[in-house]
Automatic annotation (TrEMBL):
Annotated ranges, domain Orn/Lys/Arg decarboxylase C-terminal: 406-463
Alphabetically ordered keywords of this record: Decarboxylase, Lyase, Pyridoxal phosphate
Record family assignment: Belongs to the Orn/Lys/Arg decarboxylase class-I family.
Name of this protein: Ornithine decarboxylase
Every Orn/Lys/Arg decarboxylases family 1 pyridoxal-P attachment site domain range: 7-314
Organism name: Streptomyces cyaneogriseus subsp. noncyanogenus
GO terms assigned for molecular function: carboxy-lyase activity
Keyword Iron: no
Superkingdom in the source lineage: Bacteria
Pfam family, one: OKR_DC_1
Cofactor names: pyridoxal 5'-phosphate
InterPro entries: Orn/Lys/Arg_deCO2ase_major_dom (IPR000310), Orn_Lys_Arg_decarboxylase-I (IPR052357), Prn/Lys/Arg_de-COase_C (IPR008286), Prn/Lys/Arg_de-COase_C_sf (IPR036633), PyrdxlP-dep_Trfase (IPR015424), PyrdxlP-dep_Trfase_major (IPR015421)
Residue ranges of coiled coil: none
Keyword Translocase set for record: no
Amino acid sequence: MDHSRVPVLEALREFRRRGDVVFGPPGHKQGRGVDPRVADVVGMDVFRSDVLSLNGLDDRRQSQGVLSQAQDLMADAVGADRAFFSTCGSSLSVKTAMLAVAGPGEKLLLSRNAHKSVIAAVVVNGVEPIWVHPKFDAERHLAHPPEPDDVRRRLREHPDAKGMLLITPTDWGTCADIAGVARVCHEFDVPLIVDEAWGAHLPFHPGLPAWGMDAEADLVVTSVHKMGGAIEQSSVFHLQYDRVSPEALKQREDLLGTTSASSLVYATLDGWRRQMVEQGHELLDAALRRAERIRRAAAELPGLAPMGQEVVDAGLAAAFDPLKIVIDVRGLGISGMQAAEWLRAARHVDVGGSDTCRISASVTHADDDETEKVLLDALHALADEADDLERRPPVRLPAPPALELEQAMLPREAFFAPVEHVPAERAAGRIAAELISPYPPGVPVVAPGEVITDEVLDYLRSGVEHGVLIPDAADPSVRTLRVVART
Ligand SMILES: Cc1ncc(COP(=O)(O)O)c(C=O)c1O
């Protein structure tokens, strides 16, 4: 295929050249009505390129096939049979992918280290979750994706399960053995869905972990805005083989998706694909070298311990994305959250993620010598000044098995059940009716239907006292919990 073509961008350029006058949405009419104070901040071009797909990028009959051509080019670029763009982020794409494989009341294997969008899908879709627990790495206090044998065991216990959803890479760059899990799923003739929100760059360089389609997954969802170059909310479904019907996927996407897709998202997805096909190898090569330099330099700093390929080992991760600079800061006597807050306040450096033990910074094709220096200077300053940072009460991390809570009710039933709010001191033994997800990374510690324990409460309460945010809990202070009412 001709990857120099960019159907969406070309249609947008043509729309702007023709100067079409639109009497439909968006009401700002390509910026004619925009308040200059808004344009002053976000730029006029945002509005000029904000166009509907129908009677905008394409005509009413979609006779130019603008979007379908762009999607075909994306599929070709990454080695998928089909690709579909979504403008609603992977939070929605994950729900759609799950719905395309398992309907209400049907069983789906789910990796329990899931982003909250997966647990939300369990509630909204009404699927019965069969949890596959991740591998807890007690030394690092990290959950790595489950292994093929874990999946095989659960499929044997639940031969009526409709498929499996695997989350890889994790927020911390650790990856699953996708090929191994796909083989197990296919032995049972069920599809493997991969939530590869963090992996949009993986198809474009052989030095990166294997990406889902190459590793024989059936359906892969990526967020191109995370490690790639499209704007926020740009997500892509990739499909191969015949275990997931493209028709079911399209129709279920249509149930959930917007009818006013953003042309800005489509255009930047289209441009990213061209850029990666033409220059991806070279750009990612440079990014990989840069990440290695940063990791080596950070390892020299007192109190900082960057994670590297040593995490790829039996019982731990199957691969590691070297573009994730994940640094354990416990040696500084502070938490990752404190380090992240200090880096932003004192150095204007926003690291992407932080938890009790570490921070993470994503290096992408967009980094250059200047951003590399800014990051390293900031890490230097952090190591120098950490002794002066306030010592906060520590987060009491539970032993890994304590994070595997008993599921007493289906998440959907618990979420919609009559509820009451009980003080934390009286919540142990009660069934949660809400998601409780420290953010970031947004992986629920408690899902609806799970039985709350003292250890988990102690972890959450000590986390909040330390400064962890729990935005989805009814009471973000976790002084009270929303639980299923006793009848
Ligand atoms: C593993 C995983 N899946 C899905 C999502 C949701 O993606 P989006 O932000 O594109 O909606 C995230 C977001 O952080 C994520 O980490």
